[in-house]
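Thread: Modeling a multi-component assembly for a lab meeting

Hi all, long-time lurker, first post. My supervisor asked me to bring a structural picture of a complex we are working on to next week's group meeting, and I have zero experience with this. I have the sequence lines for every component (881 residues in total). Could someone generate the structure of the whole assembly? Inputs are pasted exactly as I received them:
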Amino acid sequence: MDIRIPTVGESVVEALLAKWHKPDGAFVQKDEAVCEIETDKITMDIFAETSGQLSVLAPAGTILAVGSVIGQLNSAAEQPPAPTSSANAVDRPEAATSPAVRQAMREIGVRSGQVQGSGPAGRILLADVPDTPPAGHLAVKPPSAAAPGVVRSEEPPTYQASVPSQPAESAPGEERIRMTPLRKRIAERLLRARQQTAMLTTFNEVDLAALQAYRQQRKQTGSGVGLLPFFVQAAVEALRLFPAVNARIDGDDIVYHRFYHLGVAVSTDKGLVVPVLRNAERLGLQEIDAAIAGFVAKIKANQLAIADLEGGTFTISNGGTYGSMLSTPIINPPQSGVLGMHAIQERPVVRDGQIVIRPVMYLALSYDHRLIDGREAVGFVKAIKERLEDSSWLAGLK
Amino acid sequence: MSEQYDLIVIGAGPGGYVAAIRASQLGMKVAVVEKRTALGGVCLNEGCIPSKALLDSSELFAMARDKFSRHGIEIEPPRLNLAAMLARKDEVVKKLTEGVAYLFKKNKISLFTGSASLKGADESGLQQVAVEQAFQLSFANGDQQAVEAPQLLKGAKVLLATGSEPIPLPTIPFDGELVVSAREALGFQEVPEHLVVAGGGYIGLELGSVWRRLGARVTVMEALPGIVPSSDRQVADYLQRSLKKQGIEFRLNTKVTSLRRLGNKAMIQFGSGQDSGEVDCDRLLVAVGRRPLLQGLGAIELGVSLDTSGRVIVDENYQTSLTGIYAIGDLVPGPMLAHKASEEGVVCVERMAGKSAVVEYEYLPGVVYTWPEGASVGKTEEQLKDAAIPYKSGKFNFLGNGRAKAMDESDGFVKVLAHAETDRLLGVHIVGPRASDMIAEAVTALSFMGTARDIGLLFHAHPTLSEALKEAALDLHKEAIHG
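Re: Modeling a multi-component assembly
Sure thing. I ran the full set together rather than chain by chain. Output:
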C-alpha cells in the first residue's frame, strides 16, 4: 500500500517531508505514525493505514506535491521477531554511508534518513551533510560528562549505542539555515499583513478582579473554566456591537459575517498555530474550554487538521502566556482585527478615590483602519473591558 | 615545579601514544608516563613488531631452504645466524620506538619515565598521578636528556592505557627460561629442540611458526576443540591443516596440567578429557591469554569498576566509574589488538574535545601472521547462523588465482559473506598469502556499507592476489569467472 502526502486543505499544494519516524525496512503496525510532514500551515503525522514493512521512497527533507507517493507498506511481509542480539543491527537494510559521512552526521546529531543524498542511488556524500542541523531539527544534546554511576557492563561502545553529540564550541561568526516552509509562509503572511492593510493598534486595560473572583467561585462549585472562554464570549458580544471588526474587505466590497469564527492563537515549538472556534456565539463557557483543550491535544499529537485552521473571522492572541506586558499583534488577513491579551499583573489603581491593588491586563486591538474607524475600534475594546469587569455580566454567562 | 596538564596518559603503547599525539593535536597539554625507557609498549617492544620481524626473517629462511629449488634456484642449504636475525629484529624495534619518541617531541608531549599510580583528585578536582623513580626526558636541546622530574603530576583528566600482561598457567608459573611468555620467546638465543606452545591463539601460532621454520619441533596444545577460537571455522580449520603440513603438531581439547623439570628440559603432563599423557620439551611458551595490567596503578584501590572478566568498565566516552579517569585498549572489553587500542585512544580524546567520534567495532579486522596468513573482518559464518541472519556465501581458492600460482603460494581461499536479501557485506575471511594486506579492501568495503555486488563491479588489477576477493564476491551470486 502506498503512503502519500495527504490532501490537507484547499490551499495546500506541497508539503515538506520533515522526518521519518520509522527507518526504511522497519515493520510498522497499523495506525502507527510513520512520518511527519510540515506544510505552510501545520505539522502533522502520517499514520500507517495497514501493518507492514516500510519502504522509504522519498528521503526526509524533500518538498513534495500533495498526492506524491513517499513510501510503501508491504503488508505481505512477516513481522520479524524482536532482535535478540546486536548482530541483527546489520540485518536492517539502512542507507549505505561512508565512515566520514557517519562521523559528520553524528557531529550534527542527524541520521541517514534525515539527510538527502546526492550520490549514486541517493547515496549520502560527505558534501551532502550540512555543517549544522537542518532547521526544525532538534539536535541531540551533547553528552555531558558521564556520572560515575553510569557504566556499561558488556560490550564496548558500539556505533548504534553511541550518543551523537555537538561540538562543544560552535564555529564563530554566523550560521545560515534554510527556512522551513512553515517559517517561510509565516514570514510572507506577516509581511503581507503589514503591506496590504492599514494596520493600527489601540490599547486599553482591564481589571480582572471580578473575573478572577468569579472563576474562583466556579472552581469551588466544580465548574471551573480557563480565562480564554470569557474573552471569547466578551469578544463575540463586542463583535455583534461593532460588526466591522468581524468583517473583511473583498475587492471594493466589505463582507460582514453573520457568524463568529474566532481564531485562538496556540503556541507550539514549530510556530504559532491558530485553530478556529467555529460559531463561537453558540458555545457556552464549558464548551469553549473543552474545544481549546481539544486543539492543544491535537497539536501535541500532530493531528490538527487543516480544517481546524480555516475560516476565522477574528482572532484572539495571547502574548501573556510568554509574559508579555504589552504588544501589537498583527492581523491575519483577510481578517480585520486581532485582540491581544497580555500578562496579568497586580498594579496600583484608583478606585473611588483610593489607591488599591488590582490584577490588571492590558488589551491591544490591532485593526485594519480601512474598514474600522478609530471610534469603533476603541469602542470594541471598551465593550470587552466593561463586560469582563462586570460581575453581573459574568454571572449571566452560559 | 608543578605544571598542570589537560591530560595525563599512563602507558605509551599503541593506545596511549596515539591518544597522546591526537590529544596534543587537539590543543591539550599532555603528559605521558611510561615505565619502559623505550616507547611503544608491548606492541613495539615485545609484541606485534618484533614478532613480525622474526616472522619475516624466518619465512625468508624457510623459503630459501624449502622453496627456492622449485623456482629453479639451487643453493647450499642456508645456515641460520640466529644472533644476527635477533639483532635485526632489535634494530627494527629500536628504529620504531625512536620514531615514537620523535613524534612526542614534535607534538610537545612531556614524557615521564617511571611507574605511575593514581592518587585521586586534589581539593580543586585535579587528578593526581604519582611517578616513582621518575625522570623526565627533555627534548629541549634536540637530544633527549634525562632531567629530574616532579614526583606528583596533576591533570584535569587521566587516561589509563597500561595494556595487558600474559596470564600464567594456574599450576606452572613463568620462570623466564623454560616456562616463558611471548616476550622471551622472541629472544631465544638458540633454536629450541622441542617448543611446546600452550594456547592455539594467534600469539602461539605466530611464535610457533617462527621456531618451526627455524627448525624446532613445535607442538601446540589448545584447550578448545579448534585453534584461533574466535575465527571463522572454515578459515581456522584450513589454517590448522596448512600449519600441520609445515610440521607443527596439534593437540586439541588438551590442557597442559603440570611440568616436571629435568635439568634444562622438562616433562610436560597434559590432559585431554579422558586421555592424558606426557611429552618432553626444552621450552614451554604459555600463550593462553592476556589480562589487563592494573597492578600497582592504584585504580583498583580507588574503586574502579571491573567486569566479571577483570576488564575496566567504561561508558561511551571511555570514562571509568571514577570521574575524570578514562581507560582504553586491552584494559577495556573487546579483542586485545593494537589497532583497536589506537582507535579507542583517538576516539576517547576526541570525545574529550567535544567531537562525536565513535569506534565502529563491527569493522575491526583481525589478522594472524602465520603462513598462509589469516585475516578477517565482520561476522563469521557461525555468528550469522547463531543470529539467524539470512546470508549468502561466496568462496574462491587461491589455486585459481594467477598471481598466487606465479608466487607458488596458492594455499588458501577468500570467503565473502553477504546478506541474502540486501547483499550488504557482513564478513570477509581470508586465509592465504598476504591476507593481512588483502583484508584492507574488505574493511573499506564493509565500512562503506558496500555489497558483494560492489566488490564484484570494482576493478582489480591483474594479476594480483586481490582478484581472489572479487571472484569470491562474484561467486556469492554464482558468477565467478574463474571459479
